[in-house]
Write a structure and sequence with these properties.
Length: 204
């Protein structure tokens, strides 16, 4: 997992309340080889027209969205099934952070485990940011995980990032839960040795 400390980027706004994981990546693509990248499946069906061609009106298909590593999305983003492929598709497309009023619970945790920072912001703040981006598509947002805050453009100010301390530590170090556990191996080994010394019958 790629470490996350601070990311400054333009922002692509993808509207739609209750955007579920099947919209993020349709289920029929989940059998594809992840090694070849899931980015080509991101929002596959909703970013295309009836003929299967990319819809130039879809936010991520617009030239000003190129290179954006932060998405502004709407309430309850990532609801629906628990498929981790939805997060894979975002990560493979280079998305490092998501801003929304709320997220599906399982999706929120999957994002943290795969190097994406989901930031909850008040509805009014998200709406104000959407208006700002409409007026200035090149406006940037900074997600500063070290300082635990997101810095919005202009007078929209800074807002706290609230995530579990352990998940934050993993993200800052670029370690998943298993890799983080290995960093404690000296303490684990010492504990097991002491436990066996106090309870030798466990080794019988």
């Amino acid at each position: 997992m790629k470490a996350f400390t601070r990311e400054t980027s333009t922002v692509a706004y993808v509207p739609g309340v209750n955007c579920d994981t099947d919209q993020i990546i349709p289920g029929r693509f989940l059998k594809a080889d992840r090694a070849e990248g899931y980015d080509k499946f991101l929002f596959h069906d909703i970013r295309r027209d009836a003929d299967g061609n990319l819809d130039p009106g879809f936010p991520l298909n617009r030239p000003d969205a190129e290179g954006a590593r932060i998405l502004l999305v709407e309430d309850n983003f990532g609801c629906g099934s628990s498929r981790e492929g939805a997060v894979y598709a975002l990560a493979d497309a280079g998305i490092r952070a998501l801003l929304a009023p709320s997220f599906g619970d399982i999706f929120f945790n999957n994002a943290l485990k795969n190097g994406i920072v989901p930031v909850r912001l008040p509805v009014a703040t998200c709406e104000a940011l959407a208006d700002r981006l409409a007026a200035d598509p090149q406006a940037t947002v900074t997600v500063d995980l070290e300082a635990a805050q997101v810095i919005l453009p202009g007078d929209l100010g800074a807002h706290p990032i609230t995530i579990d301390a352990f998940a934050r530590d993993c993200l800052l170090q670029g370690l998943d839960e298993i890799e983080m556990t290995f960093t404690y191996m000296d303490r684990i080994t010492a504990f097991e040795a002491e436990r066996m010394a106090r309870n030798p019958w466990l080794g019988r």
